[in-house]
Amino acid sequence: MGSSGQFAVVVDDDESVARAISRLLRAAGITVETFTSGAAFLDQVLSQPTYRPRCAILDVSMPDIDGLEVQRRLAGMPMAIIFITAHDVPEARDKALSSGAIGYLRKPFNTTQLIELVRGVMAS
């Protein structure tokens, strides 16, 4: 991609999950890129001012920088955030949503719901 535009990113340390979500979104006609760490995604966004996905789908729990920290570091950027997690921790959900996330989905999540959330962002 390399520029602002109509694409989403998936950030999940589990490569199989990142690939599966990527395939799902592509099948729905959404352009998507994947990252397997919060640090790699932040490096891309912060080092390339023109790299601006419309939406980031973040895993809450990642070993280097977790999704909540990625969200905090992206504060103020025009990028919708959707969280996915295997562990529904109410405090994490509350923090994510109160910090502006538009969705917080527990794995295995409803694929239709995820696609609708991302399409809504792309249409705005």
Produce the secondary structure layout.
Elements: E1 8-11, H1 15-27, E2 32-35, H2 38-47, E3 55-59, H3 67-73, E4 80-85, H4 90-98, E5 103-106, H5 111-123
Parallel strand pairs: 1-2, 1-3, 3-4, 4-5
CATH topology: Rossmann fold
The topology string of helices and strands comes to EHEHEHEHEH
Shape: globular
Given helix and strand content, the structural type is alpha/beta
**Which oligomeric state applies?**
single chain
> How do the strands of the widest beta sheet line up side by side?
2-1-3-4-5
Mean pLDDT: 92
CATH class, named Alpha Beta
Q: Per CATH, which architecture? A: 3-Layer(aba) Sandwich
What is the strand content?
Answer: 15-25%
Helix content: 40-55%
Poorly predicted runs: none
* Biggest sheet layout: 5 strands, parallel
Number of DSSP strand runs: 5
Head-to-tail CA distance between termini: 20 Å
Overall number of structural domains: 1
Radius of gyration, in angstroms, nearest whole number = 13 Å
Please give the count of helices.
5
Under CATH, the homologous superfamily reads: Response regulator
